[in-house]
């Protein structure tokens, strides 16, 4: 390849190649409210901690379940023993190496089996032992023996509900930021349009002043109001940029990225039975009901702890012993079987009784909390419905204000054009129309956000944690 061709190739490559960050920033991202929530639920940084907590509790559940797995336990003992002259063979090293295979079952039964090699002084033997232990009162039954597993499962479920609530809160924050960005963009457009109209009014006032049809006061009034409008337009543009940047941060997008926010569709209330939905689906009530069931289960375990500790144990062993005196003879084999009942109990059981009483009191306390929270959620639903209805009525009033302000502005412009009035009435009408339109935008946003808040109160904003995480609930 000639030098000219190489230069041409490098030039074409330099023109065609765009750095990845610039290329990413050049491609606009089209967003809707639904899409923004989807991205936030997948990428928002505030959800990372909740997800990590959930994963940590899942690890705790796996650890609790491992208690009932098959275990392989090596055993090793190294030491020395010393005895009187009446038993000279029992002096010297005392070593043992073995392995035990153990399994615990839900009723509390524990089975172990395994061989070992033992040396005590000059005596060596190999043993094979089988042991079975069964609690009969305290410690009997799956309610007691699965206590750790069920506590870990409750922790996992609680972490899942916390994660779901964090997702709901994130969705509400994103929705609020999205509507705020839309609202600020609308305010900026209104301020720009108002500034342009006042600029024309200022030019008209200057022209009329030159021909003696307007006073200098008209010109000053128009110019002062124009500067106010230009300042408001600058502030509106900055506020719109800041609101957009807030949306980008919540969606974990780069601040240099270009996002385009689609006008949101008015949300629907959906279910007509919001109060009943809130009582059955609200995360706090679901959590309280789960805590009551967990407290009742804990009370059952605490009641079992009041019983005496009675265990039935059965041991079966076989030992093959070789002694130096009988080294030329076949080793002796001994079998041993034993079964016994072991009873241990504190007669007073003060701690156990106190724990049982505390467990019962917790059940009562949580029941009262559930009733209180249910009443509070009923109040929240009704209050939110009232706020939405009030905002809808304000939308109707704002539209009527806009209609009246437009009529007042038209009348003032006619009078000003025919020299029947100065420009004070025109500028005043422009300001009133601007405020009415701004108030309408804000009130429409209040209605939409109020509906989303009502869905969150009723537990219908997002699907359950185990379901699809990428859609708003209708």
How would you describe this structure to a colleague?
Strand 5 and strand 6 form a beta hairpin. The chain has 11 helices and 9 strands. It has 474 residues and is α+β, with helices and mostly antiparallel strands. The chain has one domain: Outer membrane efflux proteins (OEP) (Up-down Bundle). Strands 2, 3, 4, 5, 6, 8 and 9 form a 7-stranded antiparallel sheet that branches. Strands 1-7 form a two-stranded parallel ribbon. The N terminus and C terminus are likely disordered. It is elongated, with a radius of gyration of 40 Å.
Order of helices and strands: HHEHHEEEEEHHHEHHEEHH
What percent of residues adopt helix (DSSP H or I)?
55-70%
Strand content: 15-25%
H/I helix tally: 11
Which helices and strands occur, and which strands form pairs?
Elements (H helix, E strand, L loop, with lengths): L2 H14 L3 H7 L2 E3 L1 H11 L2 H20 L5 E7 L2 E2 L10 E13 L5 E11 L2 E13 L6 H4 L1 H64 L5 H35 L8 E3 L12 H8 L1 H22 L4 E14 L9 E13 L5 H68 L6 H34 L17
Parallel strand pairs: 1-7
Antiparallel strand pairs: 2-4, 3-4, 4-5, 5-6, 6-8, 8-9
Helix pairs in contact: 3-6, 4-6, 6-7, 6-9, 6-11, 8-10, 9-10, 10-11
Brief synopsis:
By secondary structure, the chain is an alpha+beta fold.
List keywords for this structure.
single chain; disordered C terminus; two-stranded parallel sheet; Outer membrane efflux proteins (OEP); 11 helices
């Amino acid at each position: 390849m000639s030098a000219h061709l190489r230069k041409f190739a490098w030039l074409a490559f330099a023109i065609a190649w765009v750095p990845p960050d610039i290329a990413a920033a050049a491609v606009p991202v089209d967003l809707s409210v639904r899409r923004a929530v989807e991205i936030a639920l997948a990428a928002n940084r505030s959800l990372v901690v909740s997800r990590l907590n959930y994963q940590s509790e899942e690890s705790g559940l796996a650890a609790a379940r491992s208690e009932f797995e098959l275990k392989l336990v090596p055993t090793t003992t190294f030491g020395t023993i010393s005895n009187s002259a009446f038993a000279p063979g029992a002096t010297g090293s005392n070593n043992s190496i073995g392995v035990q295979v153990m399994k615990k079952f839900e009723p509390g039964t524990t089975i172990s089996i395994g061989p070992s090699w033992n040396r005590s002084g000059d005596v060596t033997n190999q043993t094979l032992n089988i042991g079975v232990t069964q609690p009969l009162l305290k410690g009997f039954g799956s309610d007691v023996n699965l206590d750790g597993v069920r506590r870990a499962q409750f922790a996992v479920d609680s972490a899942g509900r916390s994660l779901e609530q964090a997702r709901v809160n994130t969705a509400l924050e994103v929705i609020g930021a999205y509507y705020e960005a839309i609202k600020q963009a609308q305010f900026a457009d209104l301020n720009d349009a108002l500034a342009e109209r006042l600029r024309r009014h200022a030019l008209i006032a200057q022209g009329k002043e030159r021909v003696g049809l307007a006073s200098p006061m008209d010109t000053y009034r128009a110019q002062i109001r124009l500067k106010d409008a230009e300042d408001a337009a600058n502030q509106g543009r900055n506020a719109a940029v800041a609101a957009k940047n807030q949306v980008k941060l919540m969606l974990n997008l780069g601040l240099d990225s270009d996002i385009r926010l689609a006008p949101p569709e008015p949300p629907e209330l959906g279910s007509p039975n919001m109060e009943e939905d809130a009582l059955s689906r609200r995360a706090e009530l679901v959590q309280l009901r789960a805590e009551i069931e967990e407290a009742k289960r804990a009370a059952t375990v605490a009641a079992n702890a009041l019983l005496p500790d009675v265990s039935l144990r059965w041991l079966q062993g076989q030992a093959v012993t070789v002694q130096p005196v009988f080294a030329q003879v076949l080793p002796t084999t001994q079998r041993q079987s034993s079964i016994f009942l072991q009873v241990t109990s504190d007669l007073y059981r003060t701690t156990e009784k106190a724990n049982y009483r505390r467990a019962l009191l917790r059940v009562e306390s949580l029941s009262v909390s559930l009733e209180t929270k249910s009443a509070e959620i009923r109040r929240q639903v009704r209050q939110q419905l009232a706020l939405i209805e009030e905002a809808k009525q304000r939308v109707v009033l704002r539209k009527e204000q806009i209609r009246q302000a437009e009529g007042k502005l038209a009348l003032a412009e006619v009078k000003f054009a025919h020299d029947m009035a100065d420009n004070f009435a025109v500028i005043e009408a422009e300001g009133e129309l601007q405020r009415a339109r701004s108030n309408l935008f804000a009130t429409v946003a209040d209605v939409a956000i109020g509906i989303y808040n009502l869905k969150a109160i009723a537990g219908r904003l997002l699907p359950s944690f185990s379901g699809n995480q990428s859609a708003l609930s209708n």
